[in-house]
Amino acid sequence: MSAVATPATSTSRPTVTGDPGLSMAGRVRRSLSKRSASAVAMLIAIMWTVPTFGLLVSSIRSETNIKTDGWWNWFAHPEFTLANYKEVLFGGDVSLSTFFINSLVITIPSVLFPLAFGALGAYALSWMEWKGRDWVFILIFALQIVPLQMALVPLLRLFSKGLEIGGAQIIPALQLVGPQKFATVWFAHTCFGLPLCIFLFHNFMSELPRELIEAARVDGADHARIFRSVALPLIVPALASFGIFQFLWVWNDLLVALIFAGGGPVTAPLTVKLADMVGSKGQEWQLLTSGAFVAIGVPILVFLALQRYFVRGLLAGGLKG
Amino acid sequence: MSETAQKFLMLFYGVAAFAVVVGVVLLLADFAPKRGREKIQVALFIGPPLLLVSIGLVVPAVRTSLMAFKDSFGDKWVGLENFQWMFTSPDARTVLINTAIWVVLTPFIATAVGLIYAILIDGSRFESVYKALVFLPMAISMVGASIIWKFIYDYKETGTAQIGLLNQVLVWFGAEPQQFIVNAPWNTVFLIVILIWIQAGFAMVVLSAAIKGIPTDMIEAARLDGVNPFQMFFRITLPSIRPAVMVVYITILIATLKVFDIVRTMTGGNFDTSVIANEMYNQAFRYDEDGKGAALAVFLFVLVMPVVVYQVRTLRRQRMESR
Questions:
Q1: Chain A interface, mutation test: which of B9, B30, B53, most A Cβ atoms within 10 Å?
Q2: What is the pTM of this model?
Q3: CATH number of A90-320: 1.10.3720.10, 2.60.120.10, 3.30.950.10, 1.20.1250.20?
Q4: Are B135 and A306 in contact (CB under 8 A)?
Q5: What is the DSSP letter of B72?
Q6: Averaged pLDDT in 10-residue chunks for chain A of 321 residues
Q7: Is the Cβ pair A28, B53 closer than 8 Å?
């Protein structure tokens, strides 16, 4: 009862039902003192970190120990081996290095294309005057939310019927149909990434000072010129933000890859192979732990290095909607 | 040529195509005839992205909507048969119920955890470290996260040494080890934990920024009035950041509706854990039941439709005000 709230606050809150409520509040208040607050924060932080940490520790233990002994015993008997990584990356029946390359080949163009088209489109929506502009913007904005599931089957059919024509236009003839499949994955990721991309860039681009653009116009620059030399340099932080977004999304994607890249070693990315391994080698923890780290290592590095841009993009995209 | 070299050649072609396309667009814009140059430039700038979203999203979405009313081969119109299947067959009903459980639990808990954590660490000495730790799962693929948690949930028979942390904890407390991802209906909850683990970091980062945006004098005034932490939370913090909370909740809600990777990786939809997006994949791409798959996709779309309408209305209001 010693920690009762001041009269001013307790009267301004008529719903409080007398003493029990107040003493409750008092107790809660005490329990929420600074020290216990950081204890709770610490607890959440530990709960959020331990799962990944356990996997990391396991990935450097020997196969027998992983399978028969809890990873927490590692602290009692530390050991270190890279054998699991060697096996999962280059071993005969898994060979994740192949899939790692596939992930790279899928991801790089899938990030570049939306960046370019998104910047062009966002400029047209921000600074060019044309009929129907607002409607197109609303359409693209709404498309951000439309589930991919609505597009998958017809788009796949479009590819399977028009692949040669579409493929040959973009890419010179390759002997194999195999690696050509990458183009369809790029195309799908570009289309699916564009709405968010345009929206994000539009948020940044439309906030450039009007005087800047108009001064350039008065100097006789046309839109192509202003885009290149004024708008584009100024939205570099937005380009970085979306670049990271799209990178993480494409690198981590499973659904689009399953459908457009298939499951084979020629085009399937890491996620597809890993998901497959969970099914076919569910108890081979020496492969799953190290394999998971091969797949999540790259995004974690990118994320840690560029966290600032990532957060900025998150806030711009999330809060303005 | 080795396969790897072919892949890198393909990558080179992709990047080259990118350079060529961008170069051509800008070049055409530069050399457009003086007369009507504005119009040509508009077409060059907005044309390609508009074409891409039309081919990649709009037209396919329309075709999927039509397919939902056709049979599995897309030949015959069958009216509402696919939707009837979706709401009456026991399997499909489990899918809908599971999705409902996901939608009720995930956005709420993830937002709540993110918010509480953001408040607790606000102004702490190691705030950025605290943030990075909880935010990190955002960078991990859902497949990777699933493996991480599958290891936590691993089950060995009673008496054998456990290698899954959760079962070891149970054993330490003298309880029987459980098959967490096999036993329905709780297995769905254990899958949900994974998505919460991923999304709480997103909630935390956005809400933390919003909390920092609350004017200091408002907080000071409240503090002078002697409000306790709970009153501070419900009367100052929460009302001030309500828009951000809404955005976070809605964003996670949409992500939850579309959840696929976790279910597919953890159980493949077995043990009564399937959800709409997973079932849609199975019907359309494994059983060749295009009609049923399309119906599930359309239903997913109908579920997010209110969000689309709400967001568009908010957007239009904002644009009106900013004029």
A1: B53
A2: 0.88
A3: 1.10.3720.10
A4: no
A5: T
A6: 33 37 52 74 93 92 89 90 90 85 94 94 90 89 88 85 48 53 91 91 87 87 86 89 90 93 87 91 88 92 85 64 30
A7: no
